[in-house]
Amino acid sequence: MASIHCTFFSKILAKQVTADVCLPSLTGREAETLSDGERFRTDRKFRTLVLLHGYTGNSSDWQRYSQVELFAEECGIAVVCPDGNNGHYSDWVCGPQNLTFLQKEFLPAMRAMFPLSTEREDTFVGGLSMGGYGAVKWALTWPETFSHLLNFSGGVDIMDRLEYYKKRPETARLMETVYGKLDEVSGGPNDNFQLLEQYAESGYPLPRLFSACGTEDAPVYGVHKRLMEEFSRRGGDVTEFSCEGIHDFHFWNKALERAMYDWLPAEKG
Questions:
Q1: CA distance 59 to 52
Q2: Which of 72, 74, 128, 130 would disulfide-bridge 22, Cβ 3.0–4.6 Å?
Q3: Residue 163 belongs to what H/E stretch?
C-alpha cells in the first residue's frame, strides 16, 4: 500500500491544495509470488473511491480515523481524499468555487498523477456528514462522473442543515457567504433533492446508492431515510447500512468496510 500526501496548485481556488491518497499494491497479497513484470504492470488503472471529509475536518481524516488503507489494499481500490476546508463542497456566492474545483481540477489532477481509471463505471464518490452532502451534490451535478454514491450520515438536505447552522453564531454568517440569500436556496443548484428531481434530464442512470446512518444519529437519520426513498421512487438501486451508532468514526468505519468489501465492484486479491 502506498500512502501519499500531495500538494498541487489550483487555478480555480488560486492556492496550493492538498490531497491524501491510498494506492493499493499493484498485485495485492500476491506480490511475493509474481515476477517483477507481473508486479509492476504499467497498464493497470485502479477503480477509484473519492472520499470527502466532514465539517471541521481535512483530507487526512479518513486515513487517520478509519481502516481505509487496509480496505483499499485488500479490495484493490484507490482512495483519494481532497481537502474541502469548511466549504460545504459548494461554489460560494462570495468566495471559492469549491464544487467546480473538485470536478474540473481535483479529479483530473488525481488521474494525471496516479494510475486511476477515467471510466464512470470505475469511479465512486462518498462522504461523511458535510461530505455526504457534498458527495450527493457532486454526483447529481455531474451525472457523467460517478457510477456509485456513498452517503455516510450526510446532512444531504441543505434546508434542514441551514436551520441548524443559523442557530450557531460561528456558522450563521458563513452560510450567507456560501449560499447568498438563505430563503432562496431551496430549489436551486445547492438543493440536492431539486437536483435529484431534475436528474432524469441528464440521460444517465442514477448512481447506485449506499446510504449509512447510525440508529442513534437523530439529526440526520430522517434525511438518510428520505434520500433512500427518493432514489428508490425514481428506480434507483439503493442499499442501506444501519446499526447502533452515532455521528462518529466508530460507525463510519463499519459502514465503509461493508461498502468496500460487499457493495462496491472491487477487485479482491
A1: 8
A2: 72
A3: helix 158-166
Cell of 90: 459548494
The b-or-e profile of 181-214 (16+ CB within 10 A means b, else e) is ebeebeeeebbbbbbbeebeeeeeebbbbbbbbb
User: What tens digit of pLDDT does each residue of 15-27 get?
Assistant: 999 999 999 876 5
User: pLDDT digits over 37-89, tens only?
Assistant: 777 778 889 999 999 999 999 999 999 999 999 999 999 999 999 999 999 99
- Is 154:224 a contact under the CB 8 Å cutoff? yes
Place of cell 471529509: 53
Instruction: Give the global pTM.
Output: 0.94
pLDDT the model gives residue 28: 54
Burial code (b: 16+ CB inside 10 Å, e: under 16) for 82-102 equals bbbbebbbbbbeeebbbbbbb
Mean pLDDT over the full length of the chain = 93
E strand or H helix at 18: strand 15-23
Report the candidate in 190, 183, 171 with the shortest Cα–Cα distance to residue 97: 190
Chain-centre distance for alpha carbon 174: 22
Q: How far apart are CA 212 and CA 108, in angstroms?
A: 28
Query: How far apart (Å, rounded) are the C-alpha atoms in residues 23 and 159?
Result: 37
pLDDT at 29: 61
The strands making up 47-52's β-sheet, listed across from edge to edge, are 2-10, 15-23, 77-82, 47-52, 123-128, 148-152, 208-212, 238-241
